[in-house]
Amino acid sequence: MTTKNPEILAPEKFPEKREKYGSLIKIPERIERNITPSVITESGEKGQKRFWEFFTVTIRNKNTRIAYLTAAHQFFDWCLERGFKLETILPMDVALYIETHPGSIPTIKQHLAALRMLFDWLVIGHVIEFNPASSVRSPKYSYPKGKTPVLTAKQTRKFLDSIDTSHLVGLRDRALIGLMVFSFARVSAAIKMKIKDYYHQGDDSFFRLHEKGGKYNVVPAHITAQIYLDEYLKAAGIADDKKAPLFRMSRSPRNKTKLSYDPMNRNAVLKMIKRRAKEAGFPEINCHSFRGTGITAYLKGGGTIEKAAFIAGHSSTRTTQLYDRTKNEISQEEISRIVI
């Protein structure tokens, strides 16, 4: 038995999540319809209320909310198959779930973190007596270098030059990619920008990037990114509409001369990048590749890891180091010393 909670979370479409989960399509759809897991439903009205309060009161980021809801649905489905009730779930049950989870280690760690926080919230609300996930150890994961593929400076120039800018959509795409490369911007921060977030003070120009947790990061605009943005805004004729979205969806897939008022979403940006990367001969890159590309080019140009972290909005240089591919070349040079 399941219940709906239509007033707790506004229904939204998540096509990018459906594409990602594939055979697990039922999970995003159930989240979209705000359906409570049966194990929670059976715990009573207090448990249901507390469950949804956790996702609406404690989590502000939409993507985190979706990820944690997905984790909760998967875990409680697993519990339902084994006949577990909410109050009978033990640490060894959570440990078994983690041990047999088919996902990658980062996914497993995220799911365990979601369960720990959710059960803590249920304990504080006196729905259950103890947190069965608190003592379960997560699998170890250490990766000194990021997995995101990045481009060299030469490859990036080839990629940017391959974009057909004889029409508005091409100018928009080049401006967006240029922004991500030259300001280390996350795609989510770039698509949240309004036209007023690209502004001028005297002879200098700046990008105001809206980051996670309601924070924003002001980055000086690189001259190349300025040129791309100015050409795009001039062609679009939208520079004076300061409160409007900066990067907008095209009115139709075939219409390359007019844009709608709706901002681009991450799924649309990813599809655009995949299409253009294939045309340019770089099929493996994604939205995040340009962040790593920019950071690596900056460090190669003599920049410091501390300044790179500041520009990227990282709280720790350890995160920035994941994007640094300059050490790859050093490793190759060193290994070539082996002569047999």
Overview of this structure, please?
With 340 residues, this protein is mainly alpha-helical. The chain has two domains: 15-124, DNA polymerase, domain 1 (Orthogonal Bundle); 153-334, Orthogonal Bundle (hpI Integrase, Chain A), CATH 1.10.443. The protein is 51% helix and 7% strand. It is built from 16 helices and five strands. It has a three-stranded antiparallel beta sheet with strand order 1-2-3. It has a two-stranded antiparallel ribbon with strand order 4-5. The protein is globular. InterPro entries: CB, DNA_brk_join_enz, Integrase-like_cat_sf, Integrase_catalytic, Integrase_recombinase_N, Tyrosine_recombinase_XerCD. It is found in: Cytoplasm.
In short:
This is Tyrosine-type recombinase/integrase. The chain is mainly alpha-helical.
Features:
single chain, 340 residues, mainly alpha, DNA polymerase, domain 1, hpI Integrase, Chain A, three-stranded antiparallel β-sheet, 5 strands, DNA recombination, DNA integration, cell division
What are the SSEs and their pairings?
Elements: H1 15-21, H2 26-32, H3 38-41, H4 45-57, H5 62-81, H6 91-100, H7 105-124, H8 153-161, H9 168-183, H10 187-191, E1 198-201, E2 204-210, E3 216-220, H11 223-236, E4 248-250, E5 259-263, H12 266-280, H13 289-300, H14 305-312, H15 317-321, H16 326-335
Antiparallel strand pairs: 1-2, 2-3, 4-5
Helix pairs in contact: 5-7, 9-11, 9-13
Organism: candidate division CSSED10-310 bacterium
InterPro entries: CB, DNA_brk_join_enz, Integrase-like_cat_sf, Integrase_catalytic, Integrase_recombinase_N, Tyrosine_recombinase_XerCD
Domain Tyr recombinase: 146-337
